[in-house]
Give the backbone structure.
Amino acid sequence: MTEHSLWRFSRALHRAINDRHFQDIESLIDEDVDWAVYGPIDMFPFLGARQGRRAVIDVIRQVADNFRVHRFDRENIMLGVDSAASMLRYSLTALDSDKPISLRVAQFAQFRADRLINMRVLIDTFDLVEQALGRSIHLPKLTGVV
Amino acid sequence: MTEHSLWRFSRALHRAINDRHFQDIESLIDEDVDWAVYGPIDMFPFLGARQGRRAVIDVIRQVADNFRVHRFDRENIMLGVDSAASMLRYSLTALDSDKPISLRVAQFAQFRADRLINMRVLIDTFDLVEQALGRSIHLPKLTGVV
């Protein structure tokens, strides 16, 4: 039984972010990959939609420039033949400020011939923004909520 | 072939929120359900973790008191025998302000004997907060981002 594409991709991604080793991850991304990580791109320019391997590698380089992954726990996982969905909890450090950031992420990936062709990532972005700012944002209680 | 638990649950959930019909959804939730919707509970008290059917039904009632679902598109879906992961885009109205809210959500569900026993939901919460406030929150560009 061969290893699921997700495990190979996940190892290569973390090696790229932490060790700036981009060769493995490049070989695991389809030239025509369709990629989106939803979130506020004004604050985090590496979020948003990207088309094609080169654009995605640029994003991964920017993430590597800004963060280090300390650990991640896969809280939920579903594997299909060529697809995977998981919910993860990441412990990161923001490199410029040395701030610890703890982040929950949901990831839907599709592979073709062992290469990533589609990736959609959802982040608990309000939590991310508050941690990156280093302060909480005052929120009113929603009117009408019982 | 019987229908996957997710479809029945999804129909009952939307019927509860829009028509305040809670009987169907109650019969599809395990007494000992483990439930968490991650997000800022100060603004949205119905977010957060809940244990047990009664607490979850209370949450669904609070959502029904505050929102109406106009439509939802399932952008990604993975089904296991007793589990499901999906990414959805919701179009809602906030009932107190009549404000339209468009929301991306990732949902991981586990069922046992057709009843929900575990639910984890991740929301693009910064987007949600800005829409609920009706204004954008100024964000600095993250220092060090190339």
Summary: Residues 5-19 of chain B form the longest helix (15 residues).
